[in-house]
Amino acid sequence: MKKIALGPGRSLCPMPTVLVGALVQGKPNFMTAAFVGMVNAEPPVLAVGLRPARYTLDGIKASGGFSVNIPSAKLVKETDFCGLYSGRKVDKSGLFTIFYDKDGKVPMIEECPLSLECRLIQTVGLETHQVCLGQILQVHASPECLTEGKPDPVKVDPIIYSIDDNKYWRLGEFLGQAFTLGKKLKKDKA
Question: What domains lie within the chain, and their CATH numbers?
Answer without folding.
Answer: 15-189 (2.30.110.10)
